[in-house]
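User: Some background: our group keeps a shared notebook of sequences we're curious about, and every so often someone picks one and asks for a predicted structure to add to the entry. Today it's my turn. The entry only has the sequence so far, pasted here. Could you supply the structure so I can complete it?
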Amino acid sequence: MFVNYVRDSVRSSPINLAAGRGLLGIWVVWKTIWYDWIRLVNVPYYEISSSHYAWAVPESVPWLLTVEKWLLIAMVLLFIAGYRIQVTGFVSALILAHFGVIRSILVSSGEASSLFIGSLLILFFTLYAEQDQLSIDGVRRAYRRPPDELTHQIVSTDSDRYKMSAMQLSMWLIAILFFSTGFSKVVDGNGLGFVAPDNLTRLVLVRSYVYPWFDLQLLIVEYPILGVLGGIGTLVLELGLVVSAVTGVGFSVFVLGLIAFTLSNVALLGIFFVDNLFFLGAFFGFDRVVQRLQRDQQLTVAFEPQNHFTLLTVYLIRLLDAGQALTYQTMSSHLEARAQTDGGQTREELNEQNTAVRVTDGETAYQGYEAFVKLLNQFVFFVPIVWIMQLDMIQDFISRSAALDSSPSTETDRNYRQNP
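Assistant: Of course. Here's the predicted structure to add to the notebook entry:
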């Protein structure tokens, strides 16, 4: 269910890297959009709380914090889309760290530290932006590559290896942070004091007066053994995550346990540190979900490398092909194979039927626009797009323009590459 990047940071599809980047960006927007930074400088809290952070507050121009907030959100949205990741990611991490310093003026708990954690995670994606192929930057890099080089990556079976160093470093960071919190519980509790019957029970009882959710809190108080088991489970999960990541034993169990632990904090203590749900959720196997949403039908995709639109489209489909149910061929290779098997037809006769893309399912061959429809229909999440493409008005427009059934010349395509 969850991917252990510490053991192996290579996947057969770049989907997880893009999903992790998107989930992290969504968390940053959700986390910071609600902050009213003007109120912070309108009250003298920072003068009596943590004055050594006062340098980070622009008292003379308080509106600058609001500008920073919206600049951060704009940069993060571009980061989610994968546009100029090295720039947008770096700026986002810098502003988020600044906000973390300002939040530290009022609180020193996870509310502030999570901003620093998020800043580091964004920096990891920034450092290894070249590995992020399923992004706007990735498409732009593919656009600039020579057709032969991009074609080789599409048709080669050895290209199904995508390294995710950013996810690996993120997992190391999260695992070490959980270990440090578990270790501090042992040290601050003078050994096993954290799991003493009266420790968690007392904490739950006090918090139950502040956050009286339901009778479950009182159940912990009435049966202290439940508090002992909860304390032991907490230490096992927090200390054991890094061990599980290194050894590869029960990794998903530990992650699910920590998610349950986070939710139990909400239910029992009213501690809404749900940032962990985003941090741990980034390691979910999104590519496995995409694989399940991909039809099992085996298709052969033949494409014309000199048609720029077709080449990039097939390249993106190749990145999404987590189930590896598609076989990719250049049109010339496909025609050579068909010339030898299609009832004695010559290669010249087959050439007359040549289009920019052809998709075959073993029985039927789809060409041009129909081939694109068949190709997208291979993925369940593209069904709405396929439905729109099959509307009569859309098909009539495509038939009249015949844009997809014509392959631009090599020279025209080359000029377009040089002068986009």
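Suggested note for the entry: The first helix runs from residue 15 to 32. Residues 403-420 have pLDDT under 50 and may be disordered.
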